[in-house]
Write a structure and sequence with these properties.
Largest sheet: 7 strands, mixed
Organism: Roseovarius indicus
CATH architecture: Sandwich
Number of strands: 11
Pfam family, one: DMSP_lyase
InterPro entries: DMSP_lyase (IPR031723), RmlC-like_jellyroll (IPR014710), RmlC_Cupin_sf (IPR011051)
Bound molecules: fe (ii) ion
GO molecular function: dimethylpropiothetin dethiomethylase activity
Protein name: Dimethlysulfonioproprionate lyase DddL
Length: 221
């Protein structure tokens, strides 16, 4: 990895992001931040082999330039600039076996570190998810995986609970149902971290919650 300094510095930015700043008084967020930064530090220390994959774009990546421009003007400029250095090497994917045609035009994610590389580790997955303006990312949850999002660019909301600005961290604990909507005018770029058992990180089984179960689960039934 040290022979690919742009990737090394991108991971450094992640480590800084999860080290600095406040957990807002939340014990769960504090321990999640600690787990993420310790895993990233350990990977940086171990200097793993890179497992580069063929770069891939998706329709939404036409919005990446704009998302990076917005990110570089705000509090997340360090991460946005580091990501722009590797933006032509990213493998954008959907993750789901079935993606609706409308979501396929407006969403994709890329991994930076994890069992599938490009920086290889079984301890943690980190990456970015990109949404076009005016997107609804349907309700879902993750089995045994704890997920945090940090806004890099654009405004978005989760479960209609608040509007999150660049720099905000949102934690979804394992099993928490979540649904995302994004602002009308600008794309939205989020950094994410997934922490959980290695076997689960290798096979996360991404599934959207079936529509008839969505309301029931939101209401805790
Ligand atoms: Fe999620």
């Amino acid at each position: 990895m040290r022979d690919c300094p742009d990737w090394y510095y991108l991971l450094r930015e992640f480590e800084t992001l999860y080290r600095q700043g406040s957990a807002g008084g939340s014990r769960s967020i504090r321990s999640h931040r600690k787990r993420v930064r310790e895993a990233v530090s350990a990977v940086l220390e171990s200097n793993p082999e890179m497992a580069m994959r063929a770069p891939e774009t998706k329709p939404v990546t036409a919005h990446l330039g704009r998302a990076l421009d917005i990110g570089e003007r705000g509090v997340m400029q360090g991460l946005a600039r580091a990501l722009s250095r590797v933006s032509d090497q990213l493998t954008w994917e959907y993750g789901y076996e079935k993606v609706s045609p409308s979501l396929a035009r407006k969403y994709a994610y890329c991994e930076v570190m994890g069992p599938n590389g490009p920086v290889q580790t079984g301890r943690l997955i980190i990456g970015f998810v990109l949404f076009a303006p005016n997107t609804t990312y349907p309700q879902h949850s993750h089995v045994e995986i704890e997920e945090s999002y940090v806004s890099v660019a654009g405004a978005w909301s989760e479960n209609d609970a608040a509007v999150y600005a660049p720099g905000s961290l949102i934690l979804n604990r394992a099993g928490d149902e979540h649904r995302i909507t994004t602002g009308e005018q600008q794309p939205c770029l989020l950094a994410y971290a997934w922490s959980g058992p290695e076997t689960r990180l290798r096979l996360p089984e991404m599934k959207l919650t079936p529509p008839r179960q969505q309301k029931a689960r939101r209401e805790g039934r």
